[in-house]
Amino acid sequence: MAITKTIKNCSGWLDMSQSVSGVILAVFLWTHLILVSSILLGADAMTWIAGMMELNFLSADGHGYPWVVTLIAIAIASLVLVHVLIAVQKLPLSLRQQIALRKQMSSISHGDTKLWVWQAITGVGILLMLPVHLWLIGSAPETIGPSGSADRIWNDGVWMLYMPLLFCVELHAAIGVYRVAIKWGAARDLNSRARMKKIKTIVSVVFVVIGLASLLAFLPHA
Length: 222
Fold this sequence. Notes:
Layout: H1 2-36, H2 43-53, H3 67-87, H4 95-107, H5 111-139, H6 146-155, H7 159-183, H8 190-217
GO biological process, one term: tricarboxylic acid cycle
Binding site for heme b: 32, 83, 133, 172
Cofactor: heme
Protein backbone atom coordinates (compact mmCIF):
# COMPACT_ATOMS: atom_id res chain seq x y z
CA MET A 1 0.00 0.00 0.00
CA ALA A 2 2.78 2.40 0.91
CA ILE A 3 4.57 1.75 -2.39
CA THR A 4 1.35 2.28 -4.35
CA LYS A 5 0.68 5.53 -2.53
CA THR A 6 4.23 6.71 -3.20
CA ILE A 7 3.88 5.93 -6.91
CA LYS A 8 0.58 7.81 -7.09
CA ASN A 9 2.05 10.81 -5.29
CA CYS A 10 5.07 10.81 -7.60
CA SER A 11 2.84 10.53 -10.67
CA GLY A 12 0.69 13.41 -9.43
CA TRP A 13 3.75 15.55 -8.75
CA LEU A 14 5.13 14.87 -12.22
CA ASP A 15 1.77 15.66 -13.80
CA MET A 16 1.59 18.97 -11.94
CA SER A 17 5.21 19.78 -12.83
CA GLN A 18 4.53 19.18 -16.50
CA SER A 19 1.45 21.42 -16.42
CA VAL A 20 3.17 24.24 -14.53
CA SER A 21 6.34 24.17 -16.63
CA GLY A 22 4.28 24.06 -19.82
CA VAL A 23 2.17 27.07 -18.85
CA ILE A 24 5.27 29.04 -17.81
CA LEU A 25 6.92 28.30 -21.16
CA ALA A 26 3.76 29.24 -23.07
CA VAL A 27 3.48 32.57 -21.25
CA PHE A 28 7.17 33.24 -21.89
CA LEU A 29 6.74 32.39 -25.57
CA TRP A 30 3.83 34.79 -26.04
CA THR A 31 5.62 37.51 -24.09
CA HIS A 32 8.74 36.94 -26.20
CA LEU A 33 6.77 37.27 -29.43
CA ILE A 34 5.12 40.49 -28.24
CA LEU A 35 8.52 41.95 -27.38
CA VAL A 36 10.02 40.91 -30.72
CA SER A 37 7.01 42.39 -32.52
CA SER A 38 8.23 45.80 -31.35
CA ILE A 39 10.08 45.84 -34.68
CA LEU A 40 6.66 46.50 -36.22
CA LEU A 41 6.72 49.88 -34.48
CA GLY A 42 10.14 50.71 -35.89
CA ALA A 43 13.83 50.24 -35.21
CA ASP A 44 13.86 52.66 -32.29
CA ALA A 45 11.11 50.74 -30.50
CA MET A 46 12.96 47.44 -30.76
CA THR A 47 16.25 49.04 -29.76
CA TRP A 48 14.55 50.36 -26.62
CA ILE A 49 13.06 46.92 -25.82
CA ALA A 50 16.42 45.22 -26.37
CA GLY A 51 18.10 47.74 -24.09
CA MET A 52 15.53 47.17 -21.37
CA MET A 53 16.05 43.42 -21.61
CA GLU A 54 19.79 44.00 -21.11
CA LEU A 55 19.09 46.27 -18.12
CA ASN A 56 20.77 49.26 -19.74
CA PHE A 57 19.13 51.56 -17.19
CA LEU A 58 21.36 50.00 -14.52
CA SER A 59 24.67 50.51 -16.31
CA ALA A 60 26.69 53.72 -16.15
CA ASP A 61 27.46 53.77 -19.88
CA GLY A 62 23.90 52.85 -20.91
CA HIS A 63 25.02 49.80 -22.89
CA GLY A 64 23.49 47.34 -20.45
CA TYR A 65 24.50 43.77 -19.74
CA PRO A 66 23.98 41.45 -22.74
CA TRP A 67 24.85 38.45 -20.58
CA VAL A 68 21.41 38.85 -18.95
CA VAL A 69 19.92 37.55 -22.20
CA THR A 70 22.32 34.59 -22.06
CA LEU A 71 21.13 33.78 -18.53
CA ILE A 72 17.52 33.93 -19.71
CA ALA A 73 18.33 31.56 -22.58
CA ILE A 74 19.99 29.12 -20.16
CA ALA A 75 17.02 29.32 -17.77
CA ILE A 76 14.55 28.63 -20.58
CA ALA A 77 16.67 25.74 -21.87
CA SER A 78 16.72 24.23 -18.37
CA LEU A 79 12.95 24.56 -17.99
CA VAL A 80 12.40 23.06 -21.44
CA LEU A 81 14.64 20.13 -20.49
CA VAL A 82 12.58 19.47 -17.35
CA HIS A 83 9.36 19.72 -19.35
CA VAL A 84 10.64 17.33 -22.01
CA LEU A 85 11.92 14.74 -19.55
CA ILE A 86 8.51 14.60 -17.90
CA ALA A 87 6.47 14.71 -21.11
CA VAL A 88 8.48 12.00 -22.88
CA GLN A 89 7.20 9.48 -20.34
CA LYS A 90 3.74 9.78 -21.93
CA LEU A 91 4.81 9.42 -25.54
CA PRO A 92 4.22 6.17 -27.46
CA LEU A 93 7.90 5.40 -27.97
CA SER A 94 7.63 1.68 -28.68
CA LEU A 95 6.29 0.25 -31.94
CA ARG A 96 3.60 -1.60 -30.02
CA GLN A 97 2.33 1.62 -28.45
CA GLN A 98 2.36 3.42 -31.80
CA ILE A 99 0.34 0.65 -33.45
CA ALA A 100 -2.18 0.74 -30.61
CA LEU A 101 -2.50 4.51 -30.98
CA ARG A 102 -3.10 4.24 -34.74
CA LYS A 103 -5.78 1.61 -34.20
CA GLN A 104 -7.50 3.75 -31.60
CA MET A 105 -7.45 6.84 -33.80
CA SER A 106 -8.75 4.92 -36.82
CA SER A 107 -11.67 3.46 -34.85
CA ILE A 108 -12.49 6.45 -32.61
CA SER A 109 -12.56 9.99 -33.99
CA HIS A 110 -11.72 11.98 -30.86
CA GLY A 111 -10.73 15.60 -31.35
CA ASP A 112 -8.67 15.96 -28.18
CA THR A 113 -6.69 12.82 -29.00
CA LYS A 114 -5.82 14.31 -32.39
CA LEU A 115 -4.72 17.50 -30.64
CA TRP A 116 -2.50 15.44 -28.35
CA VAL A 117 -0.89 13.79 -31.38
CA TRP A 118 -0.24 17.19 -32.96
CA GLN A 119 1.21 18.39 -29.69
CA ALA A 120 3.56 15.40 -29.64
CA ILE A 121 4.63 15.97 -33.27
CA THR A 122 5.26 19.69 -32.75
CA GLY A 123 7.07 18.84 -29.51
CA VAL A 124 9.57 16.73 -31.42
CA GLY A 125 10.05 19.57 -33.90
CA ILE A 126 10.66 22.04 -31.08
CA LEU A 127 13.15 19.66 -29.48
CA LEU A 128 15.16 19.65 -32.72
CA MET A 129 14.97 23.36 -33.55
CA LEU A 130 14.77 25.27 -30.27
CA PRO A 131 18.32 24.45 -29.06
CA VAL A 132 19.69 26.08 -32.21
CA HIS A 133 17.67 29.23 -31.60
CA LEU A 134 18.70 29.42 -27.94
CA TRP A 135 22.35 28.94 -28.90
CA LEU A 136 22.22 31.68 -31.53
CA ILE A 137 20.66 34.11 -29.06
CA GLY A 138 22.57 33.06 -25.96
CA SER A 139 26.00 32.98 -27.59
CA ALA A 140 25.69 36.43 -29.19
CA PRO A 141 23.20 38.47 -27.15
CA GLU A 142 24.87 41.74 -28.15
CA THR A 143 23.57 41.25 -31.73
CA ILE A 144 19.92 41.44 -30.69
CA GLY A 145 18.39 44.51 -32.28
CA PRO A 146 17.00 45.72 -35.61
CA SER A 147 20.21 45.33 -37.63
CA GLY A 148 21.81 42.38 -35.84
CA SER A 149 18.60 40.33 -35.74
CA ALA A 150 17.79 41.19 -39.36
CA ASP A 151 21.26 40.12 -40.46
CA ARG A 152 20.92 36.82 -38.61
CA ILE A 153 17.40 36.11 -39.87
CA TRP A 154 17.69 37.09 -43.54
CA ASN A 155 21.37 37.29 -44.50
CA ASP A 156 22.40 34.19 -42.56
CA GLY A 157 19.30 32.28 -43.63
CA VAL A 158 18.01 31.61 -40.11
CA TRP A 159 14.48 32.38 -41.33
CA MET A 160 14.46 28.78 -42.61
CA LEU A 161 14.68 27.71 -38.97
CA TYR A 162 12.39 30.37 -37.52
CA MET A 163 9.46 29.79 -39.87
CA PRO A 164 8.81 26.14 -38.93
CA LEU A 165 9.80 26.82 -35.32
CA LEU A 166 7.18 29.57 -35.12
CA PHE A 167 4.40 27.25 -36.26
CA CYS A 168 5.57 24.42 -33.99
CA VAL A 169 5.84 26.49 -30.82
CA GLU A 170 2.53 28.28 -31.37
CA LEU A 171 0.57 25.10 -32.03
CA HIS A 172 2.30 23.29 -29.18
CA ALA A 173 1.75 26.12 -26.69
CA ALA A 174 -1.91 26.76 -27.54
CA ILE A 175 -2.78 23.06 -27.49
CA GLY A 176 -0.84 22.61 -24.27
CA VAL A 177 -2.57 25.44 -22.42
CA TYR A 178 -5.94 24.18 -23.69
CA ARG A 179 -5.22 20.65 -22.44
CA VAL A 180 -4.01 21.94 -19.07
CA ALA A 181 -7.22 23.96 -18.71
CA ILE A 182 -9.30 20.86 -19.54
CA LYS A 183 -7.27 18.67 -17.22
CA TRP A 184 -7.73 20.95 -14.22
CA GLY A 185 -11.45 21.45 -14.70
CA ALA A 186 -11.79 24.71 -16.63
CA ALA A 187 -14.38 23.18 -18.99
CA ARG A 188 -17.37 21.71 -17.19
CA ASP A 189 -19.39 20.77 -20.27
CA LEU A 190 -19.03 20.21 -24.01
CA ASN A 191 -20.06 23.78 -24.83
CA SER A 192 -17.30 25.16 -22.63
CA ARG A 193 -14.80 22.83 -24.28
CA ALA A 194 -15.94 23.95 -27.75
CA ARG A 195 -15.50 27.62 -26.78
CA MET A 196 -12.04 26.91 -25.41
CA LYS A 197 -11.07 25.21 -28.67
CA LYS A 198 -12.13 28.31 -30.58
CA ILE A 199 -10.08 30.50 -28.24
CA LYS A 200 -7.11 28.17 -28.71
CA THR A 201 -7.40 28.46 -32.49
CA ILE A 202 -7.72 32.25 -32.34
CA VAL A 203 -4.67 32.53 -30.07
CA SER A 204 -2.62 30.36 -32.43
CA VAL A 205 -3.62 32.33 -35.52
CA VAL A 206 -3.01 35.72 -33.86
CA PHE A 207 0.48 34.86 -32.63
CA VAL A 208 1.49 33.13 -35.87
CA VAL A 209 0.44 36.26 -37.78
CA ILE A 210 2.36 38.45 -35.32
CA GLY A 211 5.42 36.22 -35.67
CA LEU A 212 5.33 36.20 -39.49
CA ALA A 213 4.75 39.96 -39.64
CA SER A 214 7.71 40.50 -37.29
CA LEU A 215 10.00 38.35 -39.42
CA LEU A 216 9.03 40.29 -42.54
CA ALA A 217 9.48 43.60 -40.70
CA PHE A 218 13.18 42.77 -40.21
CA LEU A 219 13.73 42.50 -43.97
CA PRO A 220 14.29 46.26 -44.60
CA HIS A 221 16.98 46.27 -41.90
CA ALA A 222 18.97 43.36 -43.39
